[in-house]
Amino acid sequence: QVQLVESGGGLVQPGGSLRLSCAASGFTFSSYAMSWYRQAPGKERELVATISGFGNSINYGNSMKDRFTISRDNAKKMVYLQMNSLKPEDTAVYYCYVANYWGQGTQVTVSS
Questions:
Q1: Distance, CA of 16 to CA of 84 (rounded, Å)
Q2: Signed CA dihedral, 86, 87, 92, 96: sign only
Q3: From its phi and psi, is residue 20 left (phi > 0), alpha (psi between -120 and 50) or beta?
Q4: Which of 31, 44, 95, 98 has the smallest CB count inside 10 Å?
Q5: How far apart, in whole angstroms, are the C-alpha atoms of residue 98 and residue 3?
Q6: What is the Cα–Cα distance from 21 to 74, expressed in whole angstroms?
Q7: Radius of gyration of the chain (CA)
Q8: Angle at 13 between CA 8 and CA 67, to 5 degrees
Q9: Can you tell me the mean pLDDT for 14-34?
Q10: In the chain, helix, strand, coil percent, each to 5?
């Protein structure tokens, strides 16, 4: 069965960086685009970034591109989200997503 396990969240000060990881299993990883979404308290879930199966096509959600970078390692079946210059408004639960499957999420809190 499809499994997506996120890690790497935590508490970080404004201006700091975090790298989220998502370990995937149960499907042919390189055949699927992978995405990161986030959901802040009281807000709808929003797209952060999507990367195609071989990484040659990447799309970012609104205002994400300048500070966030999505990448993947097909050999390891991993997808990553590098987040730099974090702001308090980046505080959210970050989810890994593929083909109608969601991970459990990892909390990112940006606060001094």
A1: 6
A2: negative
A3: beta
A4: 44
A5: 10
A6: 13
A7: 13
A8: 70
A9: 98
A10: 5, 50, 45
SS3 39: strand
The two three-digit tokens of residue 82, written as one number: 């590098």
Q: Which two tokens stand for residue 16?
A: 């700091």
Question: Distance (Å, rounded) from C-alpha 50 to C-alpha 71?
Answer: 9
Residue type, position 91, single letter: T
Q: Report the Cα–Cα distance between both ends of the chain, in Å, rounded.
A: 40
Half-sphere exposure of 18 (CA within 13 A, CB side): 22
How does pLDDT run across 62-101, given as a tens digit for each residue?
878 899 999 999 999 999 999 999 999 999 999 999 999 9
Helix (H) or strand (E) holding 11: strand 10-12
The CA–CA distances, whole Å, from 105 to 14, 31, 75, 97 equal 21, 22, 23, 10
Neighbours of 70 (CB within 10 A): 22
Which amino acid does the sequence have at 96?
C
Instruction: Count Cβ atoms within 10 A of the Cβ of residue 102 and give its class: 0-12 exposed, 13-18 middle, 19 or more buried.
Output: middle
